Amino acid sequence: MNKSPIKFILTDIEGTTSSVSFVVDVLFPYFLENSYKLLEMNDNVIVNQAFEETKSILQNEENRTISDLGEALEQWNHWCKIDRKITPLKSVQGLIWAEGFKSGVIQGHVYPDVERNFLEWTKQNYRLGVFSSGSVAAQRLLFGHSVDGDLTVFFSAYFDTTTGGKKEVETYPKIANELNLEATEICFLSDIVEELEAADKCGMITIQLLRENTVANWKTTAKDFDEVNSILKGL
């Protein structure tokens, strides 16, 4: 039985459950090669919302006006190439990635230690959730079509940038409120120190994952989920 003060484990994806290279080397190229298909989706609610959001962002940031989906597509491709973590891009990326995941062309990468610890944490009565800059739809696709099968069975909640920025302190109390928990009852796992700082300031327990090429620069670190499990047992 879990006797830890932690009731919920909230995990990032890139650099935490999955390699950054999977996103950069597989997902981004797939989007760029297939994003032209968005031009045929002008009656899609998600595409239309992303178009309106993009119009607003460009007007506010650059005082620039776009008037058609082709111009929006150019902007989405540019944002993808520079890895801008922005809601309208993430929404349309999810649409394109869905095709690749569902056809089997893409399988979501997860580290070998992830599934067994999800299973262990579930047995210990921890609830699990995801917070990523990728859209909730994209999160479900990655974990639903992972190299280890459907991992969505482990999750009870998903959060993306529609809740708030991952480096913004005010985002994390919103998550705690939606989970009906105190922030101190949530453990947040990420490789990015600015995200950990934001979660820490609202009272969450935070652990930095040190996957490949991640430099330890946080007060509590773990090389993988096995080590996270050991830390949780010591709380």
Structural description of this entry:
- The structure is a single chain.
- The protein is an alpha/beta fold and 235 residues long.
- It has 2 domains: 137 residues, 3-Layer(aba) Sandwich (Rossmann fold), CATH 3.40.50; 80 residues, Transcription Termination Factor Rho, Rna-binding Domain, Chain A, Domain 1.
- Helix content is 47%, strand content 11%.
- Strands 3-2-1-4-5-6 form a 6-stranded parallel β-sheet, with helices on both faces.
- Helix 2 runs antiparallel to helix 4.
- The chain starts with 7 loop residues before the first strand and ends with a helix.
- The mean pLDDT is 96.
Portion in strands:
5-15%
Biggest sheet: strand arrangement: 3-2-1-4-5-6
The shape is globular
The total strand number stands at: 6
From the 3D structure, determine the CATH topology of the largest domain.
Rossmann fold
**So how many helices?**
9
CATH architecture of the largest domain: 3-Layer(aba) Sandwich
Q: Give the low-confidence spans.
A: none
Rg measurement, Å: 18 Å
CATH superfamily of the largest domain: HAD superfamily/HAD-like
Spatial gap, N to C terminus: 14 Å
Order of helices and strands: EHHHHHEHEHEHEEH
Structural class: alpha/beta
Q: Helicity level, as a percent range?
A: 40-55%
The CATH first-level class of the largest domain comes to: Alpha Beta
